[in-house]
Amino acid sequence: MIEGLDNVVFVVEDRPEDGSLDLLGLYDGWALTERDRYGVGELPDRIILYREPHLAACTDEHELRDEIHTTLVHEIAHFYGIDDERLHELGWA
After folding, report:
1. 23 in Cβ contact with 67 (< 8 Å)
2. With a threshold of 0.90, does the pTM exceed it?
3. What is the pLDDT of residues 27-49, one digit of tens each?
4. Residue 50 class from Cβ within 10 Å (0-12 exposed, 13-18 middle, 19+ buried)?
5. Tag placement on the chain: N or C end, fewer CB within 10 Å?
6. Is 29 exposed, middle or buried (0-12, 13-18, 19+ CB in 10 A)?
7. Helix, strand or coil for residue 9?
8. Residue-averaged pLDDT of the chain
């Protein structure tokens, strides 16, 4: 378990809504840095991994595992309020 990663579900879907193969993952929710309050009864945030784009981007199982790991780190970082620019600086974009 990752400390502070509460009320988040992880979902695998075939493709993004637009059907593209360009998007590997998506954070759907409010970053911790943008929340005023977070109470009981709130729907969980979602981290979505897209299966077909991952398969299209990778040539073998090792590469697929690495890409899934990178995507998860990237989307979890969005939960904590880290934007794409900072992720790029850190090597996770």
Report:
1. no
2. no
3. 999 888 887 766 566 788 999 99
4. buried
5. N
6. buried
7. strand
8. 91
User: Quick one: which of 47, 53, 46 has its CA closest to 24?
Assistant: 53
Residue 77 has pLDDT above 70, yes or no: yes
The owner of tokens 């790991």 is 69
C-alpha distances out from residue 93 to 23, 32, 38, Å: 12, 20, 28
Of residues 50 and 33, more confidence is placed in 50
Are the C-beta atoms of residues 92 and 73 closer than 8 Å to each other?
yes
Tokens of 81: 């309020």
Strand ranges, E, within 2-93? 8-13, 25-28, 45-50
